[in-house]
Automatic annotation (TrEMBL):
The keyword Ligase applies. Residues 519-598 form the AMP-binding enzyme C-terminal domain. Its EC number is 6.2.1.1. GO terms for molecular function: acetate-CoA ligase activity; AMP binding; ATP binding. The lineage of its organism: Bacteria, Pseudomonadati, Bacteroidota, Flavobacteriia, Flavobacteriales. Belongs to the ATP-dependent AMP-binding enzyme family. This is Acetate--CoA ligase. Signal peptide: none annotated.
């Protein structure tokens, strides 16, 4: 019997038990069965939770890019590895086979080496969602350079801060990029960033928009002529299992971005295993994750996880709203997508639009639909489940983090019964616990607490680049001996987990701990409400009171605001309790969001408190202009 694929619920429980009782045996077997290693490990893992030191598959030698590509060439050489769907639907999609991928990544690897990139060097990749992004990432992995992909929506200052933090010696970018009806001058942003980055020696530039861009002598190089002259084969570097694979900065919802370092062997094993199980991927399937490769979701579940399984994975350059709100559904029909993985923020924005957009296209090919990035509210869950999944496709609500490398808590489709807004059960190998304020583990069910993981897993981040002390303090000191996720969760009567939001989003009102998610769920059920966010502010009697920021749908905008406030509070009273009624409700046209679509609550909190002095690092905000509007409208 293979340990790699979870077959049914009984098998899940059996595998889960094995993974807890005999973790060495469990991971040894999975790693042994499914990958190509130059040399096997001496030890499956070693760890020290106090010092935050972790090693997986110690002593093993491996190359992850070789496992993503070369390993498949015999059997799947002519299979499509990547479908590239351009921003403009009239531009033809590209089907890149595993053979093509091998040739392209080999060329890139040879070019990087010719340009002097060596094992352990950091390479910053700032590219739009085009195939070259995949080639560049995999070429780094192939030669043993550490990639640090920065989402190509970040500003010059956010980019230079990340480049300097990891001291990248090369930046890979393009002349520009397309996003909806906009053309973005990426090279211009890079030029501005590189004025402040003494560490960068070379900028390799890919052509995408063919706009004229200035090229700085001695620094900037067009990559295409180099690729044309490079050999289409390459001998992959032999890497230690614990050699660094990449640095990725967290999305920055809560403060100064952290450069999470991931290493090779454990990350490979865990992303492959979780991709296979969470998406129930089968050989002929076409899989699509709409995230950007600049986020961990794109790293683990557009590139590494799918390619390690020899899958067909889509790289989508565009946005859900261009040319119109049916783009996602049109792409699903066009490529007969079987697994579709997106974020609640995208679902909510599409649910606001007419249902005709969805119904125009056939979504019959879909087998599994997934969600990631933030808690999915009840209304969005049902909309997604009913209209996209047709109540037929299991909806996997996957909870995980940049730091965890791979999906931690999620239903396994066709195995774990789903429950709206619940990430449900931990995957094998993952041991979640809930902790109370006194740092005790909370036993039993129907409880809430702060979510920790009490045992290491293969793909956990190994450190914060250049700051192990911060890594230790942020994740391993709040609850000694455990990994602290920063998220709160509730465990229901059967042991299912629901992530209730970040722990610092719990607001204590008159001594009651209120999570923001259920209250926002109630508000969002009002037919005139599009989206909402609540925060606490100091109150003389209650300790804290609740302040709500509410975006109205077009239909709600003409309504009397005081009546709306009453109705919203009525809904909250009914669904959560009178204790959770909002003291103040401000109607806004938008909420401050990070570029990955998450609400930056610390700014809302400051505004509600009336403290306009210091909003902290806002360089990762998508819509900084909204901050002033909200400030001006403060109640
Ligand atoms: P930063 O750590 O810099 O503040 P971030 O936490 O937003 O940024 P990510 O690592 O991309 O950066 O996001 C992980 C977080 O997203 C989780 O800790 C959790 O709060 C939230 N999250 C992700 N998936 C889910 C999910 N399925 N349900 C609920 N919350 C989720
Ligand atoms: Mg985080």
């Amino acid at each position: 019997m293979s340990y790699y694929k979870i077959t049914d619920l009984e098998n899940y429980f059996k595998m889960y038990k094995k993974s807890v009782r005999e973790p060495r045996k469990f991971w040894d077997r999975i790693a042994d069965e499914n990958f190509t290693w130059y040399q096997k490990w001496d030890k499956v893992f070693e760890f020290d939770m106090q010092e935050a030191n972790f090693k997986w598959f110690t002593g093993a030698k491996v190359n992850i890019a070789k496992n993503c590509i070369d390993r498949h060439l015999n059997k799947r050489g002519n299979k499509t590895a990547i479908i590239f769907e351009p921003n403009d639907p009239s531009e033809e999609a590209q089907h890149i086979t595993y053979n093509d991928l091998y040739a392209n990544v080999s060329r890139w690897a040879n070019v990087l080496e010719e340009q002097g990139v060596k094992k352990g060097d950091r390479v910053c990749i700032y590219l739009p969602m085009i195939p070259e992004l995949a080639y560049a990432v995999l070429a780094c992995a192939r030669i043993g350079a550490i990639h640090s992909v920065v989402f190509a929506g970040f500003s010059a200052s956010a980019l230079s801060a990340r480049i300097n933090d990891c001291e990248a010696k090369m930046v890979i970018t393009s002349d520009g990029g397309y996003r909806g009806n906009k053309t973005i001058n990426l090279k211009g942003i890079v030029d501005e960033a590189l004025e402040k980055t003494p560490c960068v020696e070379t900028a390799l530039v890919v052509k995408r928009t063919n706009e004229d861009v200035p090229m700085k002598d001695g620094r900037d190089v067009w990559v295409q002529p180099l690729l044309d002259n490079a050999l289409a084969n390459h001998v992959a570097a032999i890497m230690d299992s614990e050699d660094p694979l990449f640095i990725l900065y967290t999305s920055g919802s809560t403060g100064k971005p952290k450069g999470m370092l991931h290493t090779t062997g454990g990350y490979m094993v865990y992303t492959a295993y979780t991709f296979k199980n969470v998406f129930n991927y089968e050989e002929e399937d076409v899989y699509w994750c709409t995230a950007d490769i600049g986020w961990i979701t794109g790293h683990s579940y557009i590139l590494y996880g799918p390619l390690l399984n020899g899958a067909t994975t889509i790289i989508f350059e565009g946005v859900p709203s261009y040319p119109d709100f049916s783009r996602f559904w049109q792409v699903i029909e066009k490529h007969k997508v079987n697994q579709f993985y997106t974020a609640p923020t995208a679902i909510r924005s599409l649910a606001k639009e007419s249902i005709d957009y969805v119904q125009k296209y056939s979504l019959n090919s879909l087998k599994v639909i997934g969600s990631v990035g933030e808690p999915i509210n009840e209304e969005a869950w049902h909309w997604y489940n009913d209209h996209v999944g047709s109540k037929r496709c299991p909806l996997v609500d996957t909870w995980w983090q940049t730091e965890t490398g791979g999906i931690m808590i999620s239903p396994v489709p066709f195995v774990t019964p789903t429950k709206p807004t619940y990430a449900s059960l931990p995957l094998p190998g993952i041991q979640p616990v809930l902790m109370d304020e006194l740092r005790n583990e909370i036993e039993g069910n129907q409880v809430t607490g702060s979510l920790c993981i009490k045992f290491p897993w293969p793909s956990m981040a190994r450190t914060i680049w250049g700051d192990h002390q911060r890594y230790k303090e942020t994740y391993f000191s709040a609850y000694p001996g455990k990994y602290f996720t920063g998220d709160g969760a509730l465990r229901d009567e059967v042991g299912y987990y629901r992530i209730t939001g970040r722990v610092d989003d719990v607001i204590i009102v008159s001594g009651h701990n209120l999570g923001t998610a259920p209250i926002e769920d109630a508000i969002n059920e009002h037919p005139a409400v599009a989206e909402s966010a609540i925060v606490g502010f100091p109150h003389d009697i209650k300790g804290n009171a609740l302040y709500g920021y509410v975006i109205l749908k077009e239909t709600g905008e003409s309504r009397n605001q005081d009546n709306l406030r009453k109705e919203i509070n009525q809904l909250i009273s009914e669904q959560v309790g009178p204790i959770a009624k909002l003291d103040k409700i401000q109607f806004v046209s938008g909420l401050p969001k990070t570029r990955s679509g998450k609400i930056m609550r610390r700014i809302l909190r400051k505004i509600a408190e009336g403290d306009f002095s210091n909003f902290g690092d806002t360089s990762t905000l998508l819509n900084p202009e909204i901050v002033n509007e909200i400030k001006d409208g403060k109640l």
